[in-house]
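Sharing a chain and its predicted structure for anyone who wants a worked example. Both blocks are below, sequence first, tokens second.
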Amino acid sequence: MASTLLPQHRQPQPSPSGSTAQAPRPAPMFELIPYERFRDTPAVRFFDITVAESNARDLVVHTGPAVSPPDDPASGAWQFYLHPHQQDNLLALQGGRTFYLVNLGWNYPFHIVRLESGGDILRIPPGTFHRSVSDPDGSLVLNQAVREEGASVAREFRIYNSSHIPRLYATTARTAPLPKLHGVSW
């Protein structure tokens, strides 16, 4: 009897020796998710910004031109967050913020994504290195996170120094291919 797999799964492919092996899947990509305006009244608009799967909320306030996480003070190397068991769903409520996303499992691993107040929700999948730079006047971002059972804030918010991770450093170095830009221009 033939099995039916969902589209996100790949059928096992026979190897040259005839055995069946599961082909590696690329890591899930980030997404920009629109939300819906559902009512207007004089001088007031209402939006449904619900992320249905969210089980945690973080409010991230940058009071000025902040970089998060900051560059390494000793070497100047970029530092990143990576959540192994958390999906971020980020919405700029005030100001703007530029996100630098690196996932070594993507076909094109480096993307720069701009979030503006009133813009889309940025969904960052688990396992993606990310950092952000706020506008000069700062920004306010709501994260409607999806944390896996057993995830802890201490493990999810570790900082990774790119100078200690050769592939990450090479992907973001000045000599690397240029990143893909989303809402940002050079």
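Comments welcome. The longest strand covers residues 129-147.
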